[in-house]
Amino acid sequence: MPEVVAIPGTHPFINSTWAVFLAVALLFPCATEASDSSTGKVSLLHIGLAFLRPDHPDPVFLSDPKIDLTMVPAFEWVMDNDEIRRILRLYLPRNRQELAEYDLILIDGVDAMHLRAGFLNWVKELVQDSELNFVMTDSGSGWAFAGSGTNWYITAIEPILSVDDTPGREAASPSFRANSFRIVPVDQEHELMRNIPWEEVTWVAMNRPTARPGSRVVAKMSGNRAVNVDKPCIVYFEYPGGGRSVSYIFTWHTMVDSPQILAFYRWRWHYDVLVHMIYWPAGETIPRDLMLVHDVREQIFNLRYSRLFLISTMEFAERSGANLREVEEGLADLYDSEDRIDELYVENEMEECHELCLELRFSYERLLEAALDAKDRALLWVFVVEWAAVSGTSMAAGILVWSLLVRRRLYRQVKTTRLRIDL
Asked: In this predicted model, what pLDDT tens digit does every residue of 281-303 receive, in sequence order?
């Protein structure tokens, strides 16, 4: 199992769609290939803003069967320096060989001063040798490229950054609305660009770097503001061995209320966009039939949500004394089917995967009905006992009242007496 270190944060935005995050991540070595030959998965090391929040991408990464995610949170706004250094010391790869086991490293929101010079040297060497792919994204808070944090261009990874930037705060007013833009594809047929209606959603960037000589621009910012004109938002280097170093000049998370970013996570295609932004830098093929794949991804998420809902219902029913043996046996049988779904997804057998998802969905519905019936039967006797107790108490109280009030005519009335003392 990978090390998943999540620092929970509080946020007023609650998206019920992401109320439950499910994933199982395994790490397998991979160098020049897109993913390990035995699993077909992309092993991802995410350093920085790696939190399980509904306005962050990690829940999406964890939910995708083709991504093996290791989260290493290290962000100054919510963590102190000692905590960041401790987590990095515990969970970062200890040597070059361990780092080479990953397919992709994502640096996102961590200050450069917190990463060891030796670690950054390993990153640079492995990326240049095409043994590791690299992504840096705009953190939305200045800890990217040459923002308000430590300048990345004075560190060891400077040669593999695909953009040029100058030190300082953000290139424009530091508000999300002022820095919003739309992605304009340079090549509509590029794997990242095709089939996605980019005009439907707004993005935010707090930096405005330029593409370096020799790099390739996949998409640009819309020119609605002067600071965006001719500025790239997806840029990459491709090395002779096939490795990639990619810069995403936009933020895909927020630590404050940002209508633009929160709207992105309500967008229908946000799941597909986020996983493709991991697939492509790692060299993983992006399917062409987006509608089918999108439906499969929704079905997989819904299945996992259904499983958690079923388990929660079973726990409540067990506390009520319900007999759930048959439901438990049926649930155990479905685990193998879920494993098979993940295998088909990784193998890109989407049609068969979709059919199995539908079958499993009906199976979960039947088990849920059985669990609810068992719960109702158990609660029936609870209600009967309560009804009997309440009814018995009411009858006893009624008899007592009747005896005291209605039957008082059986007793002879006497005149009111007054204490009299003869002297």
From this structure: 999 989 888 999 999 999 988 88
